[in-house]
Amino acid sequence: MKKLLGIIIFFVVVSLITIGIIFYARGYRPDFENGSIKSTGVVSIHSKPDNATVYVNGEEKGITNVDISNLKPGEYEIKIVKEGFSSWEKTVEVKKENVILIKALLFPTAPSLRALTFTGAINPLASPNGKLIIFSVRGDVEKSGIWALSTASGTLPSFFARDLTRLAADNEEITFSRGSYEFSPDGSELLVKLPQSDRYFLLSTTGKNDSPKEVTLDVAKIKMGWDDQKIKENETILKTLGDKAQFLADTLTNIQFSPDKTKFMGQKNNGVGFLYNSDPGPAPNQEPEIYNLPKGLDYLWYPDSEHVIIVETNSISIIDADGKNNVVVYTGDFDPDFVTPWSDGTRIVVSTNLNSTVNKLPNLYAVELF
After folding, report:
1. Does residue 267 or residue 40 have the better pLDDT?
2. Residues in domain PEGA (predicted)?
3. CB contact set of 186 (below 8 Å; sequence gap of 6+)
4. For residues 239 and 244, what is the distance between their CA atoms, to the nearest angstrom?
């Protein structure tokens, strides 16, 4: 009998401990002053780069990456600071039993600029998935033609690196470097239009095209197929985002979906930018939100889908998807028609000419962020 009673007591104690652990993990804490148990929340704060100082309501709370627990439900001012980098600030609402995840990007206050090309990069164009940059080289017999620069690698390329591929070389009959071009929806092909002659060629973007395929007679069919593919892809994404997203999309132009397909942005006829976020966070299970974007010449998605690149005449800035923490990352002379992020977000590529007295053509440069 005593043995049975001991077993029962053991299981009761284990059950109580287990229940206590579960409640503790869900944010419940004892309030000894009032003799009760209250539910709290947690803010998990990460930054890139890390080792940044975290302040909660002006009080230092640690170094990233860090979890701030035992927070009573309510609003808190979060600030993240690191010397040599932009600061990050936001008001977050802590709810009971919720974990709020913050992933802050801290950009260098004085980013470096590094050359990617040296022979001139004409008509640069980024692929739909951002993993390739196409450009033309002229005037150099050994290098003239259309080139592809891969942004999939974290290392910077050179003309002897495998990240640079000449897709089509100029020859006596065809001067590809004088052509204009556009990508297929998946970025695997490049349609090149030669000037004056109105001849079209279809190039593969995955390697050299020793025998470029002329498609002049089929170009209308190819373009129609690509347009239909884009329309179907957009309709499929909008359907998953719901009626609210569809209603907004119908009022916008230049719609761009985020890399993770959970958001999109576009512009009204008056040029005002809007962003739709199906899960705005930072707390889980939030209702979709629509945000106004600051005025800009162009808007681009940063690769993490949580930030937007805003292009203006002489500056480039990056902003959180909710419109907060607008940080200028580059100022100077550049072509506003070509700005694109590296596929991992470590740099932004611009087209500019830093020494027009020596080189009449622009080159590609990397604005180093991380």
Report:
1. 267
2. 41-102
3. 128, 129
4. 10
